[in-house]
Amino acid sequence: MSDLAGGFRYLLAGQRWVLGHGRWLGFGLLPGLVSLVLYAGALVGLGFGADDFVAWVTPFADDWSSPWLALFRGFLTALVFGLGLFLAVITFTAVTLLIGQPFYESLSEAVDRGEGGAVPESGLSLWRELWISARDSVRLLGRVLLYGVLLFALGFVPVIGQTVVPAIGFCVSGYFLTQELTSVALMRRRVELPGQLALLRSRRMLALGFGVPLVLAFIVPLVAVFLMPGAVAGATLMVRDLTADPESDSGADAGEGFGPPPEGYGPPATAYGAPAAGYDRPTGTTGGVDRGFNG
Questions:
Q1: 274 CB-side CA count, 13 A
Q2: Which of 40, 91, 98, 188 is deepest in the core (most CB within 10 A)?
Q3: pLDDT band at 8 (very low <50, low <70, confident <90, very high)
């Protein structure tokens, strides 16, 4: 439970950080606004077309008597729209991060710089970073689709499909949302997707505490746009603690209740190539998080 609450505190700390640095809040809103327009159009189209799609895939029900036909297709229409909303919540962050890669990377660097200590840089060109981000997003989308199809099928199970399955869906969404957001800071630390997932698997409750409240908030129109800058800042603060040198005093203080990263974890020479010259494992202080946690 401490990790669950800790993830939420990181989220709040990130929101406080951008509110205390107003220009970064405005700077970080631009990619979200672009994504919001795109997704709003897609969801409106889905809302108008979901019932026609359900009727097209269930021709065997055309001769059913009332009210069973309306109930059956109405239920399926709600599931289709729910699945679309589920995918929208998951992919919104990926698309927004892809659109706003330069914006959010600059914001993440500003958080590292403002909190003190090392400011890691990937040493990659913008186009290389965009390619890696897009490639990893596609890989994650494949995983999310598998979960989505499974949850969609379980939605037909009476009682469980209307209670347990939605709760699991929010948890899955929150976990992968956290991965997408922490990837900005982790990519600058030269940690690729397998390492990112391994790190979050070691702290699942921390990831859920950070991501699930965001998923719930993102359901409300426009909220996602305004929370994205703070979410990126909060994810960077989390990454700073999770990748801090466990022997560093500052890292130990900031990581109170969170513990060191998994054994063997570090900034490996992955597919990014060898670490850039002068790169060092970040041991920067995270005083901003401490101040936020302690009031």
A1: 2
A2: 188
A3: very high
- Give per-residue pLDDT as tens, 201-239: 889 999 999 999 998 887 776 787 888 899 999 999 999
Could you tell me which residue, 2 or 210, shows the higher pLDDT? Answer: 210
pTM, two decimals, is 0.65
DSSP states of the chain as a string? Answer: -HHHHHHHHHHHHHHHHHHHSHHHHHHHHHHHHHHHHHHHHHHHHHHHHHHHHHHHH-GGGTTPPTTHHHHHHHHHHHHHHHHHHHHHHHHHHHHHHHHTHHHHHHHHHHHHHHH-S--------HHHHHHHHHHHHHHHHHHHHHHHHHHHHHTTSTTGGGTHHHHHHHHHHHHHHHHHHHHHHHHHTT--HHHHHHHHHTTHHHHHHHHHHHHHHHTSTTHHHHHHHHHHHHHHHHHHHHTS-TT-HHHHHHTTTT-PPPTT-S----TT-SPPTT--------HHHHHHHT-
Residue 46 CB coordination number (10 Å) = 17
pLDDT at residue number 122 = 63
Question: What's the pLDDT at 253?
Answer: 38
The pLDDT assigned to 189 comes to 86
